[in-house]
Design goal:
By secondary structure, the protein is of the alpha/beta class. It has eight helices and eight strands. The strands form two sheets. Strands 2-3-1-4-8 form a five-stranded parallel beta sheet, with helices on both faces. Strands 6-5-7 form a three-stranded antiparallel beta sheet. Bound molecules: adenosine monophosphate (AMP). Residues 9, 31-32, 35, 52-53, 56-59, 64, 85-88, 92, 162, 171 line the site of adenosine monophosphate.
């Protein structure tokens, strides 16, 4: 079972991918998390990705595709994967199809988490993340019990550098230009399901699990 989760920055994609992976037992592969880990570890991949991420641009396809393909060779992905944040371009979607076909597999379901643009901007600019366990909070929609501190582990909360307003706007523009065509790619393949992401976490998760259940049946 290979599921692709597509949504704009701030659509709740990461949170929902986590819920979906935990409930379904599929591996959660998030391209943004892989890049952030590489930047933090100071690897060659991290050095290449860093500038693009800071500007809110996409990391070039060949670099991104190579990173994901390497991750998909790890044994925990054999039963299937929830892909979060990849593919983000038509080229990436096609490369993924070719790689899966080579191992007799295919994308079974693409979920598009749809959220209005003004809501995305509001969500991105108030987002805070735990430096230790990566739990996500929001100044308005999901504040921590103690300001600046993670409810789950007590870790320090920080803002992602690419969530600052200017970069967030650029990330949204990039999303409209480059990722919307990838959504159309899956729509034409008739494996796209749209979910209304402008609701609280639980009903969104329920709709997504429903789509997953329909596909496995
Ligand atoms: P995310 O956490 O998914 O919002 O990703 C953070 C940043 O990582 C993006 O703004 C891009 O710079 C980079 N990135 C993540 N996924 C991809 C991808 N599939 N293609 C290119 N760049 C990506």
């Amino acid at each position: 079972m290979y599921v692709v989760l597509i949504g704009a920055p701030g659509s709740g994609k990461g949170t929902q991918a986590g819920v979906l992976a935990e409930t379904s037992g599929l591996a959660h592969v998030a391209s943004g998390d892989l890049f952030r880990a590489a930047v933090q570890q100071g690897t060659e991949l991290g050095r290449v990705a860093r500038g693009y991420m800071e500007r809110g641009e996409l990391v070039p396809d060949e670099v991104t595709i190579a990173m994901i393909m390497e991750r998909l060779r790890e044994p925990d992905t054999a039963r299937g994967v929830i892909l979060d944040g990849f593919p983000r371009t038509v080229e990436q979607a096609q490369a993924l199809d070719r790689a899966l076909a080579a191992r007799d597999q295919q994308i079974d379901l693409a979920i598009y988490l749809r959220v209005p643009t003004e809501v995305l901007l509001r969500r991105l600019s108030g987002r805070w993340i735990c430096r230790v366990c990566q739990a996500t909070y929001h100044e308005v929609f999901r504040p921590p019990a103690t300001p600046g501190q993670c409810d789950a582990c007590g870790g320090e909360l920080s803002q992602r550098p690419d969530d600052r307003l200017e970069t967030a706007e650029r990330r949204l523009q990039v999303y409209f230009e480059q990722t919307l065509p990838a959504i159309e790619y899956y729509r034409r393949r008739r494996i796209l399901v749209e979910v209304d992401g402008n609701q609280p976490i639980e009903p969104v998760a329920a709709e997504m699990l429903g789509a997953l259940g329909q596909t496995t049946r």
